Amino acid sequence: MSTTKWAVDATHSEIGFKVKHMMFTNVSGKFTQFDASIETEGDDFSNAKFSFSGKINSVETGNADRDNHLKSGDFFDAENHPEITFTSTSFEQKSSEDYVLNGELSIRGVSKPVSLNVEFGGLAKDPWGNTKAGFSATGKINRKDFGLNWNAALETGGVLVSDEVKLAIELQFAKQ
């Protein structure tokens, strides 16, 4: 069977994250410039190979000062590490719609294995005859594992920014 390539439809996809601020509220952000692709055997995703790259300078949280802080050396260090990348090592089916995506996530020059829970939304043809595939992925990483160590102590105890980052990813792919 031949290899099928799938390209991300960025206008119908979102790479999002949430981090607790002051230990009690979540601040959400996303990367607005990214690329992702999948390689499959035909339309079978059981051994799919996923790859992703996101531009650090496209991080957006709804606050320009915070975005600039995230791009700085305190966090992502966009000047020296302009992208985050992910390359899958396995895509394991758990049920008809549920998978675990394992791979290497690289942030700020540090690569670590991560696992994401993925829900396969299915295949459908759009009104223009393109075959599309949809995926929702969630997971958690510890930002300090990737050298994003900046923080500030609070008078009440605790810290300004949580170590845990929750990932919320929506991806739509077009069959090439």
Key descriptive features of the protein:
elongated, 176 residues, single chain
Summarize the model shown:
This protein has 176 residues and is mainly β.
Strand % is over 45%
Overall, the morphology is elongated
Note the total helix count.
1
Compressed to H and E, one letter per element, the order equals EEEEEEHEEEEE
Q: How is the largest sheet built, in terms of strand order?
A: 1-4-5-7-8-9-10-11
| Largest beta-sheet details | 8 strands, antiparallel, barrel
Structural class from helices and strands? mainly beta
Q: Percent of residues in helical segments?
A: under 10%
> From the alpha-carbon coordinates, what is the Rg to the nearest angstrom?
17 Å
Number of strands: 11
Uncertain regions spanning at least 5 consecutive residues: none
| First-last Cα distance | 16 Å
- Seen as an oligomer or otherwise, the chain set is single chain
Tell me, rounded to a whole number, the average pLDDT: 91
Domain Lipid/polyisoprenoid-binding YceI-like: 5-174
InterPro entries: Lipid/polyisoprenoid-bd_YceI, TTHA0802/YceI-like_sf
Protein name: Lipid/polyisoprenoid-binding YceI-like domain-containing protein
